[in-house]
Automatic annotation (TrEMBL):
Keyword Transmembrane helix: no
GO terms (BP aspect): defense response
Domain (Disease resistance protein At4g27190-like leucine-rich repeats): residue spans on this chain: 3-92
Keyword Lipoprotein annotated: no
InterPro entries given in the database record: At4g27190-like_LRR (IPR057135), LRR_dom_sf (IPR032675)
Alphabetical keyword list: Plant defense
UniProt organism field: Citrus sinensis
Pfam families linked: LRR_RPS2
Record's protein name: Disease resistance protein At4g27190-like leucine-rich repeats domain-containing protein
Amino acid sequence: MPRLSSLTVGSCNKLKALPDYLLQTTALQELSICSCDLLEELPILEDRRTTDIPRLTSLWISDCPNLKVLPDYLLQTTTLQELTIHRCPLLENRYREGKGEDWHKISHIPHIKWSITRWCCRITSFERRRCRY
């Protein structure tokens, strides 16, 4: 999948872990994961470096209540401009501004969107990507 630029994984109710081959592309710009109730982890890809996903600009995670942590290689991608975490309580607590244990890992991202009522900064294109059911 070397040309894959946008990937949406949604409504996979039995999925507990995202297969690592889905993120092994240098062209990926947008990643959306939504409504995966049992999803607990994304591929860690410990042998990979940040530059392995050099074009990722947008990461959207929604309605994944069991997702515990986001891999560092996704958060450290210097091109990442938008991060949305919506209705993912474990992630919201972990990355919460000023309070979460890993806030420092996402604080450099220009546009961060939390659940509907909390904003970290101004977003101009929030409605652009939605899960399709």
